Amino acid sequence: MSAVPLSYSLRNLWARRLTTLFTALGMASVVFVLAASLMLAEGLRKALVGTGSSDNVVVIRKGAATEVFSGIDRLQAAIVETQPEIAIGKNGQPLLARESLVLVSLQKRGRDNQSNVAVRGVGESSLSLRPKVKLVQGRRPRPGTSDIIVGQNIAKRFQEVGIGQTLRIGMRDWTVVGVFDAEGTGFGSEIWADVDQLMQTFRRPVYSSITFRLRDVSEFEKFKAHIESDPRLTLEAKKEIEYYLEQSKWMATFLRVLGISLTVIFSLGATIGAIITMYASVATRTREIGTLRALGFQKRSILGAFLFESLLLGFLGAMFGLLFASFLQLITISTINFQTFSELAFSFSLSFTIACQALFFSLIMGLIGGVFPAFRASQMNIVDALRTH
Amino acid sequence: MFPLKLVVKNAFRRKVRTFLTILSIAIALLAFGLLQTLVNSWYAGANSASSYRLVTRNAISLAFSLPISYKDKISQIDGVQEVTYGDWFGGIYIEEKNFFPNFAVEPRGYLKLYDYLIPPEQSASFLRDRRAALAGCKLRDRFGWKVGDSITLKGTIFPGTWEFMLAGFYQAGVNDIDETQFFFHWDYLNETIRETMPHRADQVDFYLIGVKSPDLATKVSLAVDKTFKNSLAETLTETEKSFQLSFLAMSDAIIKAVQLVSLVVIFIIMAVAANTMIMSVRERTAEYAVFKTLGFGPWPIMVLILGESLIIAMTGCALGIALTIPVKNAIARALSDYLPIFILNTKIFLYYAIASVLVGITAAIIPAWRAAKVPIAEELGRIP
Predict the structure, then answer these.
(1) How far, in Å, CA of B215 to CA of B217, rounded?
(2) Which of B17, B155, B265 has its CB closest to that of A266?
(3) What is the pTM of this model?
């Protein structure tokens, strides 16, 4: 006779269903915390990776960590604009936008606190450079006016940003004419205005950044070398994707470290819970185990049956935990990104990889919880086991 | 008579199981305590803020600056004792991961407003030399700096590489003050900027105002903001505390998540403890039947189970308290560069006690109710 039937393990879990439920719930909370922290990091990554396009390039002042602290004067901008690597748009103009980024403190809706919102001064090509940004309400802003459009995350969370309302920024009234959706990317947490109007309002003689599309993606290195060796320019070029990834490095690390340390501590507690359950499960079934052995089941099969039972516990835990965690996808977190110093909203995002990782982790907890009790069960002396009452 | 002896004996009958349960309660409480401490240390800066100090910044946002000419106007306002100013410099020391806050400040007023402990000769040499810098003593321990060292920072907001002479180190007068900051002369910064980027010269990020008495804080801040109303750079003045809090409020979503998680921990221990009690009671069903046969009602049996559960939970609580202090110290040492302030609030132990009583009671509810309810004949006949 080889293996103990799987139904034996299944029915055992069912026979002690309250205990099974509590152990699985303990594991489920670990899975929940693990999945939640991974989902948050994934959501952040999605928001920022998605913000950049692979064939776009961002040019900022050398050494500036973000657009906010960067400065490019008009002469430098003109030199960048004439580079041959820049793609030409349908209207015959280069697909390039000189942009200006300022941070403005705005009042949050329904709460007493303020947060920094990035206001981006945009040019005519800015929208076509960001295919993910789509107007969902209202109209495009007219160039050269004080029209502004706001990202959906801003429209939801801040005061005075509904269509038709005026927003006072820099001693000037701006009219909200549209709301745009940015498919969960960082642009959704911005306000867009006309670049020249914005610079005039804040008396800034310099742009913050220049973004353009490459004529051919393979020409990036050539362009970069060209720009960075030009003695008239003190600029650096970055692929847009990499630029936005760097923006969130600090926060991504913070979330990861926090998530991992929490999971490790929590899993200690839940694994102990599994050990307790499995030991008790073995202790109360001494006679059963003796009977199984007497029937001819091998030590190996007993070990396997108990390990399987414990893995099942881990599996149940993972399912509960992931079920709860999947509801988190409805939540959007809005916080300050300490690197750019501006508001950034992102959601929990559950991916197949995360589900697998959480399941794997839960099974490991089940395995560790079950291995010693299962070993004890398999090592029992048949006669002694049968004699216990 | 409360059968304490029986309760204790019951609790420790299954030694391995009880020990594991106690251990998991202790670990979970430890996690809860550390998370709460993390949240507290997040707010530590705001707690240490003095009500004598006001912060004035550009009303648009922190990223905009104010002209240096405001200084004299502010110092003329009634109730103002001291005015100093500074810039967030945001320089990088060798590599990005060596992050520490660095500021360009007007040094004389700044040292008057903050009670740092600095050896007098170091403080004098910091004030004397334009290129001098003052660092927190934790930076000294982290990078092994010595007085007189030359420190180079790479500017991110102000381009270029900047060299400073380390004049001394400060220590915090009170417990909650950040000892990882780095200060140097604003004049040194401004001189260089005037040559390289004239349009950004003579600007400061913030003014710090010392008021004569805390009751004047509101009056002075209104007066300051009124003075610059309708100018090109309108100001926003608030107490240092509300300035810090508004700063922290921007990131409160993350802190709320940490707090939520620390409550999930309590849920885990409830599950583990409840599990242990359920199993113990199930094993002893026959014993409870004997009690009932002898004439004991449901209440004494429930008290027995509840007492056992509480004893396990409280022992876990004691172990948790014993573990918390050394673990917290180890973490504070390991993370001192990133979390400058990591101080345990002793109130946390009160929360431990409350949480463990709660866990003890909830864990006992289901088994106690079951044990009290089931008829004797069924209990006696049941196979353990």
Answers:
(1) 6
(2) B265
(3) 0.76
